[in-house]
Amino acid sequence: MQFKIPGRKSQKLTDEELVSEFSLTGNLETLGELYSGYMHLVYGVCLKYLKDKDESKDAVMQIFEKLVTEIPRQEIGNFRSWLYVVTKNHCLMKLRSMKSEKERFSEWMNDPLVFMENGNSLHPIDGDGSAIEADLADCIKKLKNEQGECIRLFYYESKCYNDIAASLNIDEKKVKSHLQNAKRNLKICLEEKNAGQ
Fold first, then answer.
1. What's the gap between Cα 93 and its chain centre?
2. Domain residues of the chain, as ranges?
3. CATH of 101-195, one of 1.10.10.10, 3.40.30.10, 3.40.50.360, 3.30.70.20
4. What is the pTM of this model?
5. What is the 3-state secondary structure of 104-137?
6. Does the pLDDT value for residue 127 go beyond 60?
7. Which of 91, 127, 163, 170 is the most exposed place for a label (fewest CB within 10 A)?
């Protein structure tokens, strides 16, 4: 997993110079030279999050491909720090996309902010969970518009706060607030439905 740069003499360019050169020229050899010094660190971060060697190797190459389009569009002050954030976000998004909707739902159900404790166990589920899913879908429809949209985008479409904020044209803090309020309202709604059964 080494990038060789033919024709580059002994001159050693800084990260900033390589970023600038790549942004201007789009030369993949320049990007390869820049990235090759950090591949072991990127792999280490990926391994920490993904906990799988092959997935982490794939992620190293996927991140390289992402840099081709991301670097020219970004103002990068410190490449190492910026790359760390890109790598971490890539891994977190990959982990979220790897979870099936059912796994996300199960994880969400075990969130004490959303689902109430009911005797010795969490809210009961019939068979494959269709009853609770129907109740949840009904409760989501009752949420205020932006709360419902935030829940849908975050849990069902695996969007991050930043993407939701951009999609709804609101501040990221508002997204967090909407999600928190939506969780509380869903908990109340589900408790009422459970009490009525």
1. 3
2. 15-98, 101-195
3. 1.10.10.10
4. 0.48
5. HHHHHHCCCCCCCEECCEECCCCCCCHHHHHHHH
6. no
7. 127
Q: What is the mean pLDDT of residues 146-175?
A: 85
Check if CATH label 1.10.1740.10 holds for domain 15-98. yes
Q: Which of 173, 177, 186, 53 is nearest to 111 (CA)?
A: 186
Max alpha carbon distance in the chain (Å)? 77
pLDDT above 70 as % of the chain: 75
* pLDDT at residue 108 tops 90: no
Using pLDDT thresholds of 50, 70 and 90, give the confidence band for residue 20. Answer: very high
A 10 A CB-CB count for 146 gives 17
Quote the pLDDT of residue 102.
52
Residue for token pair 């060697």? 53
Give one word for 175, left, alpha or beta, with left for phi > 0 and alpha for psi -120 to 50: alpha
Please enumerate in sequence order all residues whose Cβ is within 8 A of that of 45, keeping only pairs 6 or more positions apart, or say none.
Answer: 84, 87, 88, 91
**What is the Cα–Cα distance from 99 to 115, expressed in whole angstroms?**
20
